[in-house]
Amino acid sequence: MSKRIDNLPRSLRAVVAVAGALTITILSVVMPDPADASGEGSGFSRHTVTQEVSLTDGGRADQVLSSVIYEPEGGHVRGVQVLLPGATYDHRYFDLKTSRGWVSQARDAAGDGWVSVVVDRIGTGRSSHPAADEVNNTSQATTVHQLVTRLRATYEGLPVALVGHSLGSAVAIQEAATYKDVDAVVVTGLLHHGGAAAGLFGILNHPAAEDPAFVKRPVPAGYLTTRPGLRHLFYWPFNADLTTVDADDSVKQTATEGEVSDFTQEQSAGHFAKGVVVPVLSVVGEHDTFFFDPADRDRTVAAEPAAYPASPRVEVKVVRDAGHDLALQRNGERTTGYIDAWLNRRL
Fold this sequence. Notes:
Order of helices and strands: HHEEEEEEHEHEHEHEEHEHEHEH
Number of helices: 10
Shape: globular
Strand content: 15-25%
Low-confidence stretches: 1-41
Strand order of the largest sheet: 1-2-3-7-4-8-9-13-14
Structural class: alpha/beta
Distance between the termini: 47 Å
Number of strands: 14
């Protein structure tokens, strides 16, 4: 066990150990960095776009929201997926370059005929980093709504689905319930129930300003990130590639206390889930003990559709041999394939 974990209180070290064992304006195009792959020759093209957005409905559009778009080349385009990463991630949760190549739900979805729009949430990646007290799930949902409005105008006639992960799933739920502007919601890494590791996220994080990873990329006070060396706790270790975990850790991002608090509130109370009126797919890893104790997994999964009483159809899928970070496990393509097939049937 690392010295950083040893410095935690004894009760918190125990939780960590258990979890480790179980675990609108005009769009402007940004030229990709040299490290970005264009996708040329892979059946899709890739480009980064930015949009000026407001953090509040009707407010001044003084923030920048950055997204990466993967567009299928040739053939039938099925629709648009807006992919929303979780806490301490940017678009690279869905498109991660490792020493062994790309681990990419976004590229796989584009290969399946979907326009994949992967968002850097406000406060992450190339998007604006406003004061931490301005960043919560309400402001995130508001900016995503502005993006969806633009995408509907750009890809007129195509269905639009939100695909979230973890905190990004809570944002997707809130956006869909508030604005009623999407055709389906895919929730990954979020059930409306707490499990053995439910309290772990607060332990995993500390101020980003204190983290060596942010010495050369400073962020405003109040932003959080994962403690060094603990990224592996988001994975089911027996089906994780260490090169993926290392790449993930090297590009880790931030979240704010407001976002984390809003996520916890949605998980426990499901206020916004009650207002989702479109089909919902919920996908969770077999070993994601953030949301259930192993012995209670089947009962928890069976109860999840009741969290969306206004939805015309709710399906829950458990992915075997996966932990919390479904897209980054060795079998991430299985998750992507199931999501794409479900959307093909529903939209």
